[in-house]
Write a structure and sequence with these properties.
Mean pLDDT: 77
Radius of gyration: 48 Å
Largest sheet: 3 strands, antiparallel
Helix content: 40-55%
Strand order of the largest sheet: 2-3-4
Number of strands: 7
Distance between the termini: 84 Å
Order of helices and strands: HHHHHHHEHHEEEHHHEHHEHE
Low-confidence stretches: 1-19, 54-69
Strand content: under 5%
Structural class: mainly alpha
C-alpha cells in the first residue's frame, strides 16, 4: 500500500512545476531502486507521447536548488495526496478543482433525456381506412354502459326501458312458505320424517319466509346483469354465493351435481308417476291434463299422500316419502311461476331414497335462482320465480 501511494506521489511530482524537470528528478532518484524504476517508466511514456505528436507538459524548473535527495515517508505521502492537482480527460492538469455532480443535477440530466422526443428511424406509413368499414363502433347507452360490447343484452334490460320513461310495475312473487305448514310430519309419520332428515333437506321445512317484499325484489331484478351474474350496485358488484346458500339454508352444496339431459315428455312423466308414486295411469294422465304440462299440483300431492302414517305398508310409506320430498322442493328450491304445481322431472331424483342426500341441492337451487333473475330482467316479464328466501 505504501508503494502504491508513493508511486502516485512520484507521478504527481513529475508533472508538477514546483518539482523540476523530469530528467532532474530522474537523476536525483537514481540511487533508489523502486523510485528509479517508476521514474524511468514515466520518462519512456512521456517520450512516446511526444513522438506521437501530442504536446507534452513542459515542467518549469524549480527555483530552489535541491542539494540532496530526501526520501518519501508515509506522512509526506498522505500530505502530498491531499495537495495533488486535478487532471483533465486529455491527460493535462486542470486549474479548477473537479466537482462531482449533485443528486438533483443527475436527476435533471435523466429528466432531460426522457423528455427528448423519440425519433422513428424507420417510419412506416400505415394506410388510412374508413372507420365505418374496418371496425365496429359501439355507441353507449344514455344512463347505461359506455361500451355495448361488454353488456350486449342491455338494450332489452328493464333499466334501459325505465331510462326512456317506460316504467314497470312491481313483479308478482310466488312464495310457498305458508303451504309448507299444510303438510307437517308429526309423531305418526316418524318413518317419513327419518328419511327426510337423512336426505339433508329437512332444514327447508323451517327456514322459508311467508311474505316477501315486491318492491325490494323488483329493485334487485333491475340491478341484476345476466352477463356477470351479479347485482350492479352504486358501491360495486354483489352476488349470492354457495357459501351464502349453505349459511342460510343449511343444505349440501358439494356433492353430486343435479342435471337432466333432456326435457321430460308427458308419456315419460305419466310412467314415472305410476312407478314411483303408485298412482293409476288414468289418474296421472288426468292430473297432467289439468296442469297442461308434465307437472302435478301441490294440492294433489297433499290430498293423496298426507294421510299415510307409520301403520301403512312399506310401499305406501315410500310413495308418501317421495311425494313429500317432491312437494318440499316444489315449494322451496325449484318454485316456478305456476304458483300451484311442481315438475314431475324432479321425482327421478327420489327414485332411490337412500341416495337423496348425495346431491348438491344448494348448487342446483342457486343455479335455478340465477336463471329466474335473468328472465326477470326482461321488460315484458311480470313475475319472478325461484327460492326468494336467498334474496
Amino acid at each position: 500500500m505504501a508503494q502504491v501511494v508513493a508511486t502516485r506521489v512520484i507521478q504527481s511530482s513529475i508533472l508538477c512545476p514546483s518539482f523540476g524537470s523530469v530528467h532532474e528528478r530522474f537523476e536525483k532518484l537514481k540511487p533508489f531502486g523502486f523510485a528509479a524504476r517508476v521514474m524511468s517508466r514515466e520518462l519512456r511514456r512521456s517520450r512516446r507521447v511526444a513522438w506521437r505528436g501530442v504536446p507534452s507538459v513542459a515542467a518549469k524548473r524549480s527555483v530552489r536548488a535541491a542539494s540532496e535527495v530526501v526520501p518519501f515517508t508515509p506522512e509526506d505521502v498522505a500530505k502530498n495526496i491531499s495537495n495533488m492537482p486535478p487532471r483533465t480527460r486529455e491527460g493535462g492538469i486542470s486549474s479548477a478543482p473537479r466537482r462531482r455532480p449533485t443528486r438533483s443535477e443527475r436527476r435533471r440530466r435523466v429528466q432531460l433525456r426522457e423528455d427528448e422526443p423519440a425519433v422513428d428511424r424507420d417510419p412506416v406509413e400505415h394506410p388510412q381506412h374508413d372507420r365505418d368499414e374496418t371496425e365496429e363502433v359501439f355507441e353507449g347507452v344514455p344512463g347505461g354502459p359506455i361500451d355495448r360490447s361488454i353488456l350486449r343484452s342491455f338494450d332489452n334490460h328493464v333499466v334501459a326501458k325505465i331510462w326512456l320513461g317506460e316504467d314497470r310495475a312491481p313483479l308478482k312473487l310466488e312464495n310457498h312458505g305458508a303451504k309448507l305448514q299444510l303438510w307437517e310430519l308429526d309423531a305418526e309419520r316418524s318413518c317419513i320424517s327419518e328419511t327426510v332428515h337423512r336426505s339433508g333437506l329437512a332444514p327447508l321445512t323451517s327456514c322459508s319466509h311467508r311474505v316477501a317484499s315486491r318492491p325490494m325484489m323488483s329493485a334487485f331484478c333491475e340491478r341484476w346483469q345476466p352477463e356477470t351474474m351479479t347485482f350492479h350496485l352504486p358501491f360495486g358488484e354483489m352476488t349470492i354465493t354457495l357459501d351464502d346458500v349453505a349459511s342460510i339454508l343449511h343444505i349440501p352444496i358439494t356433492r353430486s351435481m343435479i342435471s337432466f339431459s333432456q326435457p321430460l315428455r308427458v308419456d315419460d312423466a305419466n310412467a314415472l308417476l305410476v312407478e314411483l308414486l303408485g298412482t293409476t295411469d288414468v289418474e296421472a294422465s288426468r292430473e297432467m291434463e289439468q296442469c297442461r304440462s308434465p307437472s302435478v299440483r301441490l294440492l294433489w300431492l297433499r290430498d293423496h299422500f298426507s294421510t299415510i302414517t307409520d301403520v301403512s305398508s312399506d310401499d305406501d310409506i315410500d310413495f308418501a316419502t317421495r311425494a313429500f320430498l317432491l312437494h318440499l322442493v316444489g315449494c322451496t328450491l325449484f318454485a316456478d311461476k305456476s304458483a300451484t304445481s311442481v315438475a314431475v322431472v324432479y321425482l327421478e331424483l327420489f327414485r332411490d331414497l337412500s341416495m337423496v342426500g348425495s346431491y348438491a341441492w344448494g348448487a342446483a337451487c342457486l343455479a335455478y335462482l340465477y336463471r329466474q333473475l335473468t328472465t326477470a330482467t326482461r321488460f315484458e316479464v311480470r313475475q319472478l320465480g325461484g327460492y326468494l328466501t336467498l334474496l
